[in-house]
Task: inverse folding
């Protein structure tokens, strides 16, 4: 049984590398990533799970890092925006003007990247469901939607649904 | 930031979990079983909850079970809402959990957490109510399987040292005609103004409700009225609403009068839906 009582050295796998950090049970993953590892791509917004600015991937699925304890991430694969390394969704955001101020962008990128990997043939409803997890106050929602659609396998979608 | 310290345990078996719970409680300390943790973290951050230790049960294989076997669907307490929707063994449950919070949070919220949480809506329990499901709970003396209705009275009645291991739904219910209707005040992603699930079996239509009263419920007297085909639909609904078992919620999402109006309209929609299915 894993037991952690106080500040202790733990190992997290972040962006493909094992990183040793000091953490205590009450530490929140968002703050650990930012303060211990200097990965400031995940943004603190509402810190209550509402806005999605802090979204990262844990074992390939989007997670709001403000609602995860650091110690829960032991043994998991964490991917932050710094680990995307020119993923297609990043170029798609540039080409489709998928951002304005940029504060929400890393969270949206992570959700879109995960969606493109898990459901490369996602339909409209699935795209709506996934993207509703994040807020953008500059209202570039249409552009973000265009960006994700540009990297999904839409030919398969058109063939399946018979509509464009 | 969580403004207090606590111990973190991640056991690999039910025995380890209940043993550490028991030992900690005997020292006069508070414990919480921990699964998704979304409610714990958001409440702890606001000083609304305190514990000396959390026992993370996500490492227990039985709590992660998600399978259809021997004519029963078993869903472990740490299975996430996303996993329930993606696997889609039970479409009524999938539809219900897909409307709890948002998609990313559904990757973290677990079935057990939604059932045992303090937020009053607990919508995931509704499909379990209409299917007469069972629940397996554990404490230091072992596990027991009991009908959900025997332990769910306004909320799951667990002792401090008891944890939810899994829920079990009979396969015969999984593909029966059913409907999930949720209304919110404004946004699609919100706590419910009213949520209703209904499922038709051999005897009649079973209904379960959230956000009508301060707790989710299923009512046999309301079901009797709603299934009384000798009466016109409006009359059946009116009698059912007159038999709501407690005070109708009156809060920022909607007044009790508005809820009554909306409740009538939703029940009408559901009864019409099943007439069309017939």
Result:
């Amino acid at each position: 049984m894993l037991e952690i009582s106080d500040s202790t050295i733990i190992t997290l796998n972040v962006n493909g590398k094992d990183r040793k950090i000091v953490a205590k049970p009450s530490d929140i993953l968002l703050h650990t990533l930012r303060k211990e590892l200097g990965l400031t791509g995940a943004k603190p917004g509402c810190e209550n799970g509402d806005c999605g600015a802090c979204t990262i991937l844990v074992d390939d699925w989007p997670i709001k890092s403000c609602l995860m304890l650091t110690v829960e991430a032991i043994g998991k694969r964490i991917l932050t925006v710094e680990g995307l390394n020119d993923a297609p969704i990043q170029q798609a955001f540039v080409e489709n003007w998928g951002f304005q101020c940029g504060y929400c962008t890393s969270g949206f990128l992570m959700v879109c990247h995960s969606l493109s990997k898990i459901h490369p043939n996602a339909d409209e409803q699935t795209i709506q469901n996934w993207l509703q997890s994040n807020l953008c106050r500059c209202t570039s929602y249409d552009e973000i939607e265009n960006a994700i659609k540009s990297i999904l396998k839409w030919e398969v979608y058109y063939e399946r649904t018979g509509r464009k | 930031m969580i403004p207090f310290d606590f111990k973190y345990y991640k056991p690999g078996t039910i025995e380890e979990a209940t043993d550490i719970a028991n030992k900690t409680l005997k020292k006069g300390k508070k414990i919480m079983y921990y699964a998704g943790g979304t409610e714990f973290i958001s409440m702890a951050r606001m000083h609304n909850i305190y514990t000396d230790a959390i026992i993370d049960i996500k490492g227990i294989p039985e709590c992660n079970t998600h399978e259809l076997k021997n004519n029963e669907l078993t869903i472990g307490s740490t299975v996430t809402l996303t996993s329930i929707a993606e696997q889609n063994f039970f479409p009524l449950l999938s539809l219900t959990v897909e409307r709890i919070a948002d998609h990313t949070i559904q990757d973290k919220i677990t079935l057990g957490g939604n059932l045992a949480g303090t937020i009053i809506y607990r919508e995931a329990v509704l499909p379990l109510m209409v299917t007469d499901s069972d629940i397996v709970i554990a404490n230091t003396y072992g596990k027991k399987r009991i009908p959900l209705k025997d332990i769910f009275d306004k909320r799951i009645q667990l002792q401090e040292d008891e944890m939810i291991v899994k829920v079990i739904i009979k396969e015969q219910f999984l593909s029966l005609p059913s409907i999930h209707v949720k209304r919110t005040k404004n946004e699609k992603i919100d706590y419910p103004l009213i949520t209703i699930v209904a499922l038709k079996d051999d005897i009649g239509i079973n209904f379960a409700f959230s956000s009508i009263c301060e707790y989710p419920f299923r009512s046999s007297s309301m079901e009797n009225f709603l299934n009384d085909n000798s009466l016109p639909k409006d009359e059946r609904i009116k009698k059912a609403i007159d038999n709501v078992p407690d005070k109708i919620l009156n809060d920022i999402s909607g007044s009790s009068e508005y809820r009554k109006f909306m409740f009538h309209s939703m029940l009408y929609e559901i009864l019409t839906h099943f007439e069309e299915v017939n």
Notes: The interface with chain A takes residues 1-2, 4-12, 16, 20, 37-38, 41-42, 44-45, 54, 56, 58-59, 82, 98, 101-105, 107-108, 188-189 of chain B (CB under 8 Å). The radius of gyration of chain B is 19 Å. Residues 7-59 of chain B form a domain with the Uridine Diphospho-n-acetylenolpyruvylglucosamine Reductase; domain 2 fold (CATH 3.30.43.10). The CA atoms of residues 212 and 222 of chain B lie 13 Å apart.
